[in-house]
Amino acid sequence: MSADAGPRRLRADAERSTARILAAAEEVLAADPAATLERIADAAGVARATVHRRFSSRKALLEALTGVLNERYLCGLDQARVATAPPVAALYRLTELLFELKVGSRAIMELTADPATQMTPLSPEVTAGLELLFRRLHEAGEITATDTAWCFALYLAVVHEAAQLPANSPMLGTEAGDVGARADLTYRTVLAALGGGRPPAEPRAGRTA
Amino acid sequence: MSADAGPRRLRADAERSTARILAAAEEVLAADPAATLERIADAAGVARATVHRRFSSRKALLEALTGVLNERYLCGLDQARVATAPPVAALYRLTELLFELKVGSRAIMELTADPATQMTPLSPEVTAGLELLFRRLHEAGEITATDTAWCFALYLAVVHEAAQLPANSPMLGTEAGDVGARADLTYRTVLAALGGGRPPAEPRAGRTA
DNA sequence: TGCAAATGCTACACACAAGTCTCAGTTATG
DNA sequence: CATAACTGAGACTTGTGTGTAGCATTTGCA
């Protein structure tokens, strides 16, 4: 399940290096998608050679990164119970989780998708989960939009914009937590944008459980 | 007003080359933001050396490109009469114009903004125009969102997503023109997303005039 | 028509990131 | 503790994009 899933398991410190590199790459690449491996190595506190040791190439590192993000999405979809919970509750919970897991930057996702195919680097499981969620929202009459592709293109866009919004924006209100306010804004905006006929309902299930 | 605004004016064919390069750069860079100057030159039907002759550096070319886009925005804001027309009509018209002028790809705009400052490469005039539009929308009660920054971050995001939407999406309906359908979808979505209390009103002024 | 300007083409210099290799020193783990 | 794994540091090759220069040719313009 790790980056390379090599034949023999890594030593503990090597595993730590891998994790630190991935974390640093996420942070650095979010700020500058064209950042050098050297800058990533610096941010991770390792030598550039070590990056090459843990990841056979830059491409491999990027793929590992999107793998991590995919796992986070999958984890979020699972925790939000998109298949069973009331759709609006699932959407709200999922949105909270996405902000908690800091899946704000779309730039990283666009790094692996080569310019030609323009394919979404989201795994089939993730897209299936999102499709299910929005289909259920539609069946419940919470949204009117019919195209699930449009639904989560818009959803991801709003998540991204809400993540980039400066912390002092009046849109975030005076609520306590920062991520909570962003999630709330995203939830309301998406539901309204996709044609919620009624004013957005409060979720009926657990909030920050 | 041209790319370099040199001391002496260019010959007619040189001016044409400049235009062709800019057009090619827009198309190629929209597909792949990391595209080579050589690929741009090929797409423009000129030699790479000519690109260097018309634009002193890659950076200069990118700046010229954003200049062009800024002009288009400015032109759109002017034609939409954002200062005088009824706000919803102005929004609708502006949206139409943005799609007609193919200002769909945000990738190009993000090319000039260096990763550090994260500044919007939109000119102050453009941002001022957009701010005015959304403030008027708010004052007219068409939207409830209070932060203009949030308003046009979301607006641009929706424009971008609508531009990327595949042509056969059910969201685009069976309307005649492609750009019209996208503009319509964008208009409705944005108005709803920003808290239009009522179902989005039809614009009261000229449509595709 | 004649001249200056613009272009295509080729060759070259330069910078820089990716990737490989070696070796000495450090750290985990049986 | 002894071995094997991991790391940092440095040197090195390679590939590639950018930018410059020269020269023959074409083209706009007066």
UniProtKB/TrEMBL annotation, chains A, B:
Q: What domain of life?
A: Bacteria
Q: Which residues bind DNA?
A: 36-55
Q: Which InterPro entries match?
A: Homeodomain-like_sf, HTH-type_TetR-like_transc_reg, HTH_TetR
Q: Which UniProt keywords apply?
A: DNA-binding, Transcription, Transcription regulation
- Per UniProt, residues of the HTH tetR-type domain are 15-73
Read off the Pfam families from this record: TetR_N (PF00440)
Q: Does the keyword DNA-binding apply?
A: yes
Q: Which protein is depicted?
A: Helix-turn-helix domain-containing protein
